[in-house]
Design goal:
The two termini are 19 Å apart. The protein is α/β, with parallel strands linked by helices. The protein has helices at 2-26, 81-86, 114-127, 140-151, 171-189, 197-205, 216-226, 231-243, 270-279, 298-301, 303-317, 358-364, 366-402, 411-420, 426-437; strands at 32-38, 44-50, 64-67, 91-94, 133-138, 156-162, 257-262, 286-291, 323-324, 330-331, 346-347. 47% of the residues lie in helices and 12% in strands. The strands form 2 sheets. It has a 9-stranded mixed β-sheet, with helices on both faces. α1 (2-26) runs antiparallel to α13 (366-402), α5 runs antiparallel to α8 (231-243) and α13 packs antiparallel against α15.
Length: 438
């Protein structure tokens, strides 16, 4: 019986190693699909989709759709796409009209405004056959995201506003952003059809906490992405941002909302985030999270912390294991009769229903753990049974030896024999090790 159990134990170990290797390969990368979709007026937008690669799956909430900031493209999330897919999300990136590899309508087009981008986003989601999604946006993209969530609340399950505010028309932001308008107009006056490299580079890294932490190749690629947008696109959207104030729409947002920004963001400060949260009176819940040692682009400087906080918030509010979240109280007025309730930096999260996560269990190795534990249990029970019979066998052996005439044994020989005698017999020792393994 012990020999058979040993074979079972070896087999379970080999299965564990093989399954771990297989699941590791499966979760290493999500399948990537890049294509263009047609929105209103025949405008084609560049999109990318990463399929979920991790064991956990998010059900019923739709994919995670990410919107870029000014003047970037979907490439801005290249440092977090894979990480988010490993967390179990299907991730979709969309490039707005005029930017990156999307179509560029002529100067003066109505699409070059936040409201115009909202309508372009709506058309893109229809073309992608996305009825409901987890919607996230950074900077300019966050204004588009929360306005979309306010106008079409049934289409957004969770809202992520990254580096956002209620408006960019405040005196603080106007003084920061107006020089961009002046500079871009100067470029257009000298008939430049592309933004100069130095200006594009400075506009990207100017509000980073530590630009050395961002891969140099990534920054270089982002500079080239921003220069794909004509100067008139830069100008039109920047002017719209510093003029508009649609903060009244914040009260119409119903989705749980994460206000995420860098702790060292000098463009949109903590007080602006608090003011934004105060206006979101209808949101199911709001959470302010500040990523340490990062400026206006936390998904560049702290991609791992960014993904950790985004995943924790989404799983918390989609009722998907208790994990720590970033600092900041959770406001949930609906659940507490209109009273504001602050909780510590932990949120309750539950896993998906077991029927929906069988492949997730396999991917996480739970089957392997169960098989290993069962094999060790059988092995240990066989050792325990053997140890029970070992006592009577030893007693019989002692009685047999006592009937034999005793002979004198030298003291040195008795000492050597005692040294070879274990404190715990081998069977019981293996039994204890089996219990420890379980």
């Amino acid at each position: 019986a012990v020999g058979w159990c040993r074979q079972l134990f070896v087999a379970a170990t080999l299965v564990a190693a093989a399954t771990s290797a297989t699941s590791g390969k499966a979760a290493s990368a999500g399948e990537k699909t890049r294509r263009k979709v047609i929105v209103h007026e025949g405008i084609a937008l560049d999109t990318v989709t990463y399929e979920a690669a991790g064991p956990r799956r998010v059900f019923g909430a739709g994919p995670l759709v990410l919107l870029h900031g000014w003047p970037e493209s979907l490439v801005t999330y290249d440092l977090v796409y894979q990480r988010l897919s490993v967390e179990g999300f299907q991730v979709v990136g969309i490039t707005f009209p005029g930017f990156g590899d999307s179509d560029k309508p002529p100067d003066g087009s109505e699409v070059y405004s936040v409201h115009g981008l909202v309508q372009a986003l709506r058309g893109a989601l229809r073309s992608l056959e996305i009825e409901k999604c987890i919607l996230g946006g950074h900077s300019m993209g966050s204004f588009v995201a929360w306005e979309f969530a306010a106008l079409y609340p049934d289409s957004v399950s969770v809202l992520l506003a990254i580096g956002s505010a209620a408006t960019a028309a405040s005196p603080h932001d106007y003084n920061r952003l107006e020089p961009y308008v002046v500079a871009i107009k100067a470029f257009m006056d000298v008939h430049k059809h592309k933004i100069p490299v130095t200006f594009a580079h400075n506009s990207l890294v100017g509000d980073l906490y530590d630009k050395k932490k961002v891969p140099r190749a990534f920054v270089k690629g982002m500079v080239e992405e921003t220069r794909k947008a004509p100067p008139y696109v830069w100008l039109a959207l920047m002017q719209d941002l510093i003029r508009r104030n649609d903060s009244r729409l914040l009260s119409r947002i119903k989705a749980p909302t994460l206000l995420l920004n860098g702790a060292n963001d000098s463009l949109f400060t903590l007080n602006m985030q608090k003011a934004m949260r105060e206006r979101m009176t209808s949101a199911a819940a709001t959470q302010i999270v500040r990523i340490p040692k990062s400026g206006h682009s936390p998904h560049w400087e702290q991609p791992e912390l960014f993904v950790q906080n985004v995943a924790a918030f989404i799983h918390a509010h989609l009722h998907l294991v208790t994990v720590p979240l970033g600092p900041g109280p959770i406001m949930n007025k609906r659940a507490h009769g209109g009273a504001e309730v602050s909780s510590p930096s932990f949120v309750a999260i539950t896993r998906p229903p077991p029927s929906q996560s069988v492949d997730g269990l396999i991917g996480n190795g739970y089957y392997v753990v169960v098989a290993f534990s069962v094999a060790m249990l059988i092995y240990t029970l066989s050792l325990w049974a053997r140890s029970l019979t070992a006592g009577p066998r030893r007693a019989g052996a002692r009685r047999g030896r006592s009937s034999v005439k005793k002979t004198t044994t030298p003291a040195s020989a008795r000492t050597r024999a005692n040294e070879r005698t274990p404190i715990i017999n081998p069977t019981r020792r293996r039994y204890f090790l089996g219990l420890l393994s379980i």
